[in-house]
Design a protein that fits this description.
- It contains eleven helices and no strands.
- The protein is mostly helical.
- α1 crosses α7, α5 packs antiparallel against α7 and α8 runs antiparallel to α11.
- The longest helix is centred in the C-terminal third of the chain and has 38 residues.
- The N and C termini lie far apart (about 50 Å).
Length: about 325
């Protein structure tokens, strides 16, 4: 079984190993743009739209407790009692200090709004670009054509889209480690790493067509999720609910319907039928495994998506982005 497949990214664009640096350099630029936008543009937009800025009370300065907190953010009662005795404080005072210190690490509502606005802008622009690219392509409407004319499957617009997507996931991977850990840190980490590797295969071999189909199916639901979160932060609970249930519907239709039973089915079943030699290359099976990793993550996230929807329907709780909570508090 062979691994390497000496295929270019299509006759309109030849692969160059230096291109592997483009998304990494682009990620650094994207992080800079993100920080500038959030600090000088998105924050002002949020304030103008009425995002409440709640001032979190700071705990009194205490070097001993601060050092203990930097070591571990989860304190058992025995540790609390030990520190209380050491500092001649009550257990309640130490617990209160920990609560106030933990609140300092959590992003504010305005910070969450800016983060959602950034992602919403990206997903909205990326999905619009993807639809524009594939709309007049015959292979989008007939997936069998994704596997015909193999040496002609790459075009410059698709190449640019792959590079921009690659850049985005590299930047998100950096942000994931810089920010406080959220409850879905490890699933998100697996998702980003898997996506980066898959995008490498999209660049390295002529798989760009089927990857573009996947992008069209995936990004549309993310737009609605960010809209739901932004309207929640703005205090528009009813609009947030409508956006969230729209997100749930689109998520199920695209990620649990069209993605596995249309796009993935084409790769697993139709690609080797049209291109029998694919079965001789190990990269074909590696990609298949990575795709199924993403599908498993989609199923895991669907459980939590439906759990939130159930809470909204039967307990009248507002939509809450529980992933924004720190995993350490």
């Amino acid at each position: 079984m062979r691994f390497d497949l000496d295929l270019s990214f299509g006759n309109t664009h030849k692969r160059n190993n230096w291109e592997l640096l483009y998304p990494i350099v682009g990620a650094l630029a994207a992080l800079t743009v993100r920080n500038v936008c959030q600090k000088y543009i998105f924050t002002k937009i949020g304030v103008l739209l009425g995002v409440k800025q709640i001032q979190v009370k700071k705990p009194p300065h205490n070097p001993v407790l601060e050092k203990a907190y930097s070591t571990s953010k989860r304190w058992k009662l025995a540790r609390v009692r030990g520190l209380a005795k050491q500092l001649d404080m009550s257990v309640e005072e130490v617990q209160r200090w920990v609560e106030l210190r933990g609140a300092q690490d959590k992003p504010s509502v305005l910070a969450r709004f800016c983060e959602s606005l950034w992602r919403g802008c990206y997903y909205g622009g990326a999905w619009t670009a993807a639809v524009t690219i594939v709309w007049d392509k015959p292979w989008f409407w007939d997936l069998d054509q994704c596997w015909t004319n193999w040496d002609q499957s790459g075009t410059s617009d698709v190449w640019w889209y792959v590079m921009c997507s690659w850049t985005f996931y590299w930047s998100e991977l950096v942000v994931l480690h810089l920010n406080a850990k959220k409850k879905d840190f490890y699933p998100t980490l697996i998702h980003h790493v898997t996506s980066i590797i898959l995008l490498y295969f999209a660049w390295n071999s002529n798989l760009s067509r089927i990857f573009m189909v996947g992008f069209v199916l995936i990004d549309c639901s993310d737009i609605l999720l960010e809209v739901s979160k932004m309207t929640l932060y703005l205090g528009h609970d009813k609009v947030s609910r409508v956006a969230y249930f729209s997100f749930v519907f689109v998520w199920i239709v695209t990620r649990l319907g069209f993605l596995p039973f249309w796009a993935v089915k084409s790769y697993v079943q139709d690609a080797p039928r049209i291109l029998p030699f694919l079965r001789d290359y190990s990269f074909y099976y590696i990609i298949m495994i990575l795709i199924f990793v993403l599908l498993i993550l989609n199923c895991i996230w669907t459980f939590f998506v439906l759990k939130v929807a159930r809470d909204i329907l039967f307990t009248e709780k507002p939509f809450r982005d529980s992933r924004s909570d720190s995993s350490d508090n």
